[in-house]
Each structure stands twice: as C-alpha cells, then as structure tokens.
Write a structure and sequence with these properties.
Elements lengths: L3 H13 L7 E4 H11 L10 H4 L8 H15 L5 E5 L2 E4 L1
C-alpha cells in the first residue's frame, strides 16, 4: 500500500494535469522542479523507490509517481499532456 503523501501527489497531479506548468515543452527534470516547488510537502527525498517497488531504484519515490501520472495522462484522449521525446513532455 502506498504512503498517503505518494497517493495524494498522484491524485493531485492527475486531477490538475500539472497545472503548475504553462503551455510548452519541458524536460522531465523541469517537471520535477515544478512539482517540488508546488508540492514540497509531498516530495520526500528520503522515501526511495526501492522501498516501495519490487524492482525499485535509489531515486525518490515521488519522482516515480510524477512519471506514472504523466504516463497515465498521456493515454487520456482529453489530456493536455503529450510525450514528445526522451524525457521531454509537452503541455497544452
């Protein structure tokens, strides 16, 4: 079961479709920075992916949640999110 902060971050990002990012193309690292600025209380760098995922890595779990939310939104037909290249995302 996911921690409450991880679940809340995922729900928030999906609901507002990364509203903190204006129209344009952003690198994944730019997206991470924007999410951290907007939701610092939900971005715990000490909770690593390997503690939450079976095949996790040594990166913060909240970054995994950001990618998961982006991937989910790109599959939604009415979403403002488009994957445009390696670690590049476009927001309309």
């Amino acid at each position: 079961m996911a921690r409450p902060d991880v679940s809340e971050l995922y729900s928030t990002l999906k609901a507002d479709e990364f509203a903190m990012l204006g129209t344009g193309t952003y690198s994944l690292h730019d997206v991470y920075r924007a999410v951290r600025r907007r939701h610092p209380d939900l971005c715990d760098d000490t909770f690593l992916c390997r503690e939450n995922c079976r095949n996790g890595h040594d990166q913060p779990e909240w970054q995994h949640v950001v990618r998961k939310a982006l991937d989910s939104l790109k599959r939604r037909n009415a979403s403002r999110v488009t994957h445009v290249g390696p670690a590049q995302w476009s927001f309309e």
